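I'll show one example:
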Amino acid sequence: MRKTRGALAVLALSAAALTGTTTSAAATGSFSSSRAAAAPCSVPDAFCATNGSGDQLVLHCGESARAPWSGVGYWDNRLPGGGIVKMFDYYGSVNHVAPADSGPTEINWSPVWSLRAYC
């Protein structure tokens, strides 16, 4: 039963993450390699994540995305209204929370499977 529940949670989270990834990337041009990895978020009212090469993922309130990297990177949370970002592992458990108005912070993206912005 636990395996089934875990698999269903992963499927639901994956579906939500795929929807958010498609919407976010298409609407905001979320990925960019023009920015230094540890630079502060240049997108107002957003959560920015980067990998070691400087590729960027941007989330706005209510958006979710599949974490596209592994290894070391950074995040910078500038979501409005005290917004936070929860980072989930493969099984759908929260493994990290980016507090409101914080960063840039170094992170190992390897255990992060998906992200969701809450505002």
